[in-house]
Amino acid sequence: MSLDNQKSTRLIPVPEWNNHHSWPPIGGLRHLIFNADTNGFASAFKRVGRRVLVDESAFFSCVEAQNQRGK
């Protein structure tokens, strides 16, 4: 598989999230990470060792999916 076939997305380290987005605050983001297996956000977080990265496009896809379920 070449890199050209992969969907381009930005991976943002959790402590830098608020440099790019105002919502959710870091505490809220950490809550989503801690409960990711049960809240539908598991696909939005990538773990590399102890570091957690937020897949920006997957995160907002999860937000949209949550929004659609609420309707």
Summarize the structure.
This protein is α+β, with helices and mostly antiparallel strands and 71 residues long. Helices cover 44% and strands 17% of the residues. Strand 2 and strand 3 (51-55) form a beta hairpin.
Order of helices and strands: EHHHEEH
Strand order of the largest sheet: 1-3-2
Form type: globular
- The secondary-structure class comes to alpha+beta
Number of DSSP strand runs: 3
Main sheet attributes: strand count, strand direction, barrel closure:
3 strands, antiparallel
Walk me through the topology:
Blueprint: E1 11-13, H1 17-20, H2 26-34, H3 36-39, E2 45-48, E3 51-55, H4 56-69
Antiparallel strand pairs: 1-3, 2-3
What does this structure look like?
It is a single chain. With 71 residues, the protein is of the alpha+beta class. The chain has one domain (9-69). Helices cover 44% and strands 17% of the residues. It has four helices and three strands; from the N terminus they run E-H-H-H-E-E-H. The protein has helices at residues 17-20, 26-34, 36-39, 56-69, and strands at 11-13, 45-48, 51-55. It has a three-stranded antiparallel beta sheet. A hairpin with a 2-residue loop joins strand 2 and strand 3 (51-55). The termini are far apart. The mean pLDDT is 91.
What attributes does this structure have?
about 70 residues; alpha+beta; 3-stranded antiparallel sheet; 4 helices; globular
